[in-house]
Write a structure and sequence with these properties.
With about 575 residues, the protein is of the alpha+beta class. The protein folds into 2 domains: about 180 residues, 3-Layer(aba) Sandwich (Carbamate kinase); about 325 residues, 2-Layer Sandwich (VC0802-like). It has 17 helices and 27 strands. Strands 13, 14, 15, 16, 17, 18, 19, 20, 25, 26 and 27 form an 11-stranded mixed sheet that branches. β7 and β8 form a beta hairpin. α2 packs antiparallel against α3 and α16 crosses α17. The two termini are about 40 Å apart. Bound molecules: aspartic acid and magnesium ion. The site of magnesium ion (MG) has 3 residues, from loops.
Amino acid sequence: MTLLVQKFGGTSVGNIERIKAVAKRIALCKEAGHELVVVVSAMGNSTDELTNLALSVSKTPPSREMDMLLSTGEQVTISLLSIALNELGISATSMTGSQVGIITESAHGKARILEIKTDRIKELLKNGHVVVVAGFQGTTLGTSKTAEITTLGRGGSDTSAIALATALKADSCEIYTDVPGVLTTDPRKVADAQLMTTVTCDEMLELASLGAAVLHPRAVEIARNYGIPLVVRSSWDNQPGTTLTSKEKRSLGKEGLELSKPVNSIELLEKQSVIGLSHIPDQPGIAADLFETLSEGGINVDLIIQSTHQGNSNDITFTIAEEDLKRTKLLCQKLIQRLGGNLTIQEKMSKLSIRGAGIMGRPGIAAKFFDTLSKSGINLRLIATSEVKVSCVINAKSGNKGLRYVSEAFDLKDKQIKINPTNICNGEPEVRGVALDPNQVQLSVINIPDIPGSAAILCQSFADEGICLHTIVQSERKYESNGKIISFTMNKDDRKNADDILIPLLKVWPQAYLEDGKAIARISAVGAGMPVSIGTAGRMFRALANANINILMIATSEIRTTCIVAENDGIKALKEVHKFFKLASK
Ligand code: ASP
Ligand code: MG
């Protein structure tokens, strides 16, 4: 007998007809012999309606009272669905988050799940019941040991479902929704987006802006960490939908179901060289030329960074394996003869990376990584960030020291430390999906001192205010007084707080100043096969060049290539890249 956790979202239970239809579907599944735990959202828009009611009484309702109010939405659905199931002759019992024993942190409105007590559910399942659980809510014991209702944050029912599946060791967790699954890009922007049959959890996390619309990102993190199969499919047909997969297989430990320690490994990659091309022309097609030439030469490029440019020239920096250095050098020299610019090469470099789910969503993690390195006196040559990995390129001679200090800082055990790991990839595509994030702004701190600690201080200051920096890029070019540029993007909403955070910093660095970039869009191509395919980045740049789109910034990570383009070019860029990688439906 298989144990399934099924979750039905707000639209799927939006009215009585739909609740009855969902009940029929559950009844069929039960009759087919499955054990079922069903998680539901509040009906339709009722969470919004409840929120509006509260806001019509007060602009700043206490968060405890908001949780008390919002948790009633799901309570309506669980009882109605259980009534509908019983009417169909299926024994069903509804339970609130507190009744189940979904224990959370005390942070009202955004509580993370610590553990789930499964005894009561298991007892009901044994007696043949379908257990209908209220999503999005839990309970905390509070400081005074008094139970308090908490909610997990908007969209949190997905997280309730996968957390239950994890605690119950279910065979699968199915998220039923009003779309057929996860698509290769946003269908509102690109009409011929296609359904993905599978996607890895890491890819899904990297496709954040795409994924978040379909699934709560915290649900993906849980599925990733514990390796529970997660399926997204339509409530209205029997199509298989999209399956999210993960190779991780943690077991539930003491640190809480939604991990308080998200870093799960550290990697040191040795024998790397950093190639810098500076003062090359800033026009569409240059990056494409460069990386196509390298890929024709069979050279697998790892990180690529292109920082903001002043005047009309660009700097592009990338890393390769030392064994490819000679050939790379020759190819780059030829290119520079044709285009102009300077070539710099740094040998004997290493890449140190931390890996885990949702790293960039927890702004303190990258900051702690950079800070640990700077306290060990290690200068960061390049930085690459992504949702699942943060990397720094450092001098090879600091590699082991960095590895040791960072492992200690994140409390990593021997088996979590990997030296020169090989990329294994089981036929995964180089690009699985493409996402556009139009809600970012770009900022640069210019002339920041080139000494250990600058990046750490910058990231820490933002992290202290809970602001996540994305696409952090540290330039090659040196400015007056030997300073460098660190550019980064952040959510538009966070921009207004950035000045306050930076003012004290700029006092410490009197020569440095802040510059706002042009309006941007961030476009990312993501694929688990990217690390083993040569030339993916070059192909993405070519797609943009063909459409005459200029790339303002490039930042790659293991399974993601991100380009920052002018805001107006965003949708066009998305369409071109989607088409170029043949993701469109035939
Ligand atoms: N009802 C909650 C919301 O609308 C939780 C959920 O549906 O996932 O955010
Ligand atoms: Mg949802």
